[in-house]
Prior knowledge:
This protein has helices spanning 18-28, 45-57, 72-88, 120-143, 169-189, 215-225, 234-244, 270-275, and strands at residues 8-13, 33-38, 62-66, 94-100, 152-157, 195-201, 256-259. By secondary structure, it is of the alpha/beta class. It has a single domain (8-275), classed as Rossmann fold. The protein has a seven-stranded parallel sheet with strand order 3-2-1-4-5-6-7, sandwiched between helices. α1 links the parallel β1 (8-13) and β2. α1 (18-28) packs across α7 (234-244). 40% of the residues are buried.
Amino acid sequence: MEAFSDGDYALILGVSSGFGAATARELAGRGCNIIGVHLDRAAGMPGVEALRADIENMGSTAHFFNVNAADTERRREVIEAITDLRDGVTGRFRLRLLLHSLAFGTLRPLVAREGATLSEPQLAMTLNVMASSLLFWTQDLVAGDLIGRGGRIVAMTSSGSRRVLPHYGAVSAAKAALESFCRQLAFELGDEGITVNAIEAGVTDTPALRKIPGQEHLLSDALSRNPSGRLTTPRDVARIIGMICSSSADWINGTTIRADGGEGIVELDWRDRHEG
C-alpha cells in the first residue's frame, strides 16, 4: 500500500480503543500523523498514552484531545486547534482521512410494559453521537478548507443498521442514519474529490461490543458463521481503511463496505449441515 508523506494527517474520532486505535497504529506505521479525539477518564489514560507512544515510536506525531466529540463547542475547539496546526506547520498539511468511530448510545427497549424504556433525550443523544456528529465534523472540515481533493471520510457502521437485537433500537436507528449521511455526503462532495464510505465490520470483540446485552451470543454466533473460523479483528478493519486512503480507491464512493471475512453471507448452522 502507498506510504504517507510528512504532511499527511488522519483525524480519528474515537481513537483510544477498538477500530480507532487500530487504525491509528496502522496509518502511523505507514508515515501518517494522527489527530485523535477520545473521551476517557483517568482509568483509561494509560491505554491512551501507550497508543501515543506507539505512534511516536513509529516516527509520526500524535495530537490527542480528550473531549466529547459530539459536543458542539468541543468540536469547534478541536477544529480551531487543527487550523492552528495547519497554519503552523512547515511545508504541506493534508488531511487524508476523517474516521468516525464513535460508539456510545443508550441500550434500552423502545417499548416496555415494565422497566425503563428509551427516553427522548437518550434517543437524541444516541443519534447525535453515532450519526449526526459525522455530518457536523464534515461541515466544519470542509468550511475550514481542512480537507480537500483526495480526502477520505469513513464511518464505522454495523449489521445492526438492518438487523434487530434486544435493546438495540436506538443504536440501530443511528447506524441506519449514519449510512444515509454517508451516501448523501458522497453525492455532495464528489465533485470536490472527497470520498465518503461506511465500513460494516464483522462482529469484533471491542469495548463497545461488550456493552451490548447478549454479546456472548453475538460472538459465538459470528464465530460459527465466519468461513475463516475466527472473528474479525480491529486490525483487519484498519488495514482496509488504509487501502481506502490510497489513490487507487478514488472510485469507491458512497457505499457500505463489508469487512467481515464473509460472516454476513453464511447461515448460522452451516458447519453442522456440512459435517452432517
